[in-house]
Amino acid sequence: MLQLNGIVGGTAPIKLSPGKSVDVQTIVIDVPNGKKLVLKSLNFLLSNDAFTFKVEALPSTGTFIVRGGSGDLQPNKVLFNNRTGDAVRIFLNISVINRARNTRSLDRNSCWLLKLARV
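Now predict its structure.
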C-alpha cells in the first residue's frame, strides 16, 4: 500500500479561469510486470465546490475524476494494468480543474490523501 498526500501550498491562492486546470502534484511509481496500480481511497478538500479533482496515470489511459469540493471515497479504480512483460514507470499526476463559468481561486490550504496499491 502506498500513501500519497499533498497540499497546494505557496504564498497565495491560484486563480483558475473557467475550464482551466492546474497540476498540483506529480510523482513516479514503478509498477512490476503483471501488477495493477489501483486507487483504493481518496480523501480531499478543495476550497470551492466548482473544482474537479483528477488523478491520472500517465502515459496510460487510467483516470479518476470527481466533482465537488470535498470527498472521502473508496473508488477501487484500476489506473494502470501492466501487461507489458517488464516493469513500467508511471507518472501519477494530480490536477484540479475549474468547472465554473467564472474565475475561481484554489486556496493554498486545499489538500488530499490517496491510498494506492500494486496488486
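The mean pLDDT is 96.
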